[in-house]
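Researcher: I'm preparing a figure for a lab meeting and need a structural model of a single chain. I don't have an experimental structure, so a prediction will have to do for now. The sequence is pasted below. Please return the structure as tokens so I can convert it later.
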Amino acid sequence: MTTAIDDTTRTGPLAGFTVGVTAARRADELIALLRRRGAAVLHAPALRIVPLADDSELLAATKELIGCAPDMVVATTAIGFRGWIEAADGWGIGEELLARLRGTQLLARGPKVKGAIRAAGLVEEWSPESESLAEVLDRMLTVGVAGRRIALQLHGEPLPGFVEALRAGGAEVVVVPVYRWMPPEDLAPLDRLLDAMAAGTVDAVSFTSAPAAASLLSRAEQRGMEEQVLAALRGGVLAACVGPVTALPLQARGVDTAAPERFRLGPLVQLLCQELPARARVLSVAGRRMEIRGHAVLVDDALRPVPPAGMALLRALARRPGWVVSRADLLRALPGAGRDEHAVETAMARLRGALGAPKLIQTVVKRGYRLSLDAPADSGYGTT
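Model: Understood. Here is the structure written out token by token.
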């Protein structure tokens, strides 16, 4: 895991937070956007893409359509449609495919897909401005699909209910599986992300495809930590999804998700920039503004990275701000500390040093520690 924070000044809205990235495709772009806003990133590809040239399923579907032309083709993504045409060219059947497509009704999911269709020398019959597949489906069912042969270009993600609705309407559906997903060859990064989620050291996990979300949950189940990961996602770890389809595997397991209004990487990052700072705990302590973030604390405008043990102590103190927390209670908050209360003193010394302002935390002799909370004299803080 790498961090992108400065230890003296705030560098962005995500400074002090750790975000898991499960994407395989366009991961570098997403990671760059997050780091530019100050986030620490834990990259754990949950999937790998089957190379188009090696994809026997795509080749078989393409030959089937060339052999028996469809009445209608639905193109769902620009990169997927382009990839399909390029793969067919590589197999030496590109012109045959284009010839078949010229004789069909082409429906494009949105403007980008429309551009890809026209770049291939084809013309779409219709495209919704909303980029909504639901609107595409509504139009098809309204016009009628009974007895029609329809090719549906996929892009790695399932389209729940879409194929079923067409078949229920009497259509024959041929699925064109462009960019199929497989589990990652190296599972170590994904395992590290799962461990971080269970340990509470990651603040959010981003998902850009439904298969990635399903793959993460499947790996958690294989490792016997499914309940821990689900508890984290239902608790303090934000599940940020690029869109509603991506969120379906998580929502099916009772996980609340957040998604931007526009299903793009930029809006997804902006969503994180809004949601994570809003979750930070803000306190007025010893005349200073303290904002407790994932792995760091903002003291006024200075960002102070805090080690995990120190953050565990600080969160325990912040649960009852201004009240004395005993060493025994603080010891229980320390991960793997055992029974030695000296571990609390060591971690507390490091915490004070990390904060750069020792007076933020007050030692109460023979009793424990408390935050030096700024509060009215009659508030009762610190009296017990």
